[in-house]
Amino acid sequence: MISEQASSAVKAPRPSWRELGAAAITARMLGLFALLVVAAVVCANLGAWQIGRAFERADAARAAEEAVITNADPESLTELLQPGAHVMGTMVGLPVEVAGEFEPAFDLLVPDRYVEGKSGYLVVSALRVSQTQALLPVVRGWVAESEDVPNPPDGEVTLVGALAPGESYAAASLPAGQVNSISPALFASTWGTPIYNAYLVERDATQGLVTVPRPQLDGGGGVDIRNLAYAVEWYVFGGFALFVWYRLVRDEALVRREEAEDAAAAVGADATTDITPRTP
Length: 280
Hints:
By secondary structure, the protein is α/β, with parallel strands linked by helices.
């Protein structure tokens, strides 16, 4: 009894390549292999797509930077983006031009924003775009004290600035006339619609305000690490799918070996019984 338990506790040797090959070419294993290869290919393609996204964001940031550095002519906002449309990564930071009139009643301050290492307020005003009659949030500049905010210019103006996607909104307890983010979704509830799902950072701040640095795509000009991490995850998933198939083949080979050994033992036992002399 003890010897049998000790024998069962001994780990079975690994299957040979011949045993693995015999187990792998069964119909069941070939079918599983086809399914898992498809899964691995899908994971590999998703990984490659994430890598492309990581470098695409970096390229978009560099393109925007290059457009500013080379003083490229700004694009027309109304040709680049429609009210309510999503801001693509390639648009972030691009210089654009837009004409319209400010709505002074909609001026807001965004506190706790830093410029040149100092905390202060972003001054956000609503521009009624002449061509679309939609509202566009405009960051006219930065100010250190909330009492020192100049009024926006009167009449129709033509602005040049950098485009940025709207920020997400989180509830906060702030004084009247202040919000914690440049959120077009929030502004729509008080300003009305139509409204652009973006905001403009003026290239030259209103007199009396400090110019705000041009917005950049998240991750700056470098490769997006988050997308690279996603790519690694997809490659790991693909490799794991192939590893699962190998383990299934290995287990199948071990089962086939045990069945063969049991069959051989049974044949040996029958042969021993046949040659045993009978007592008269």
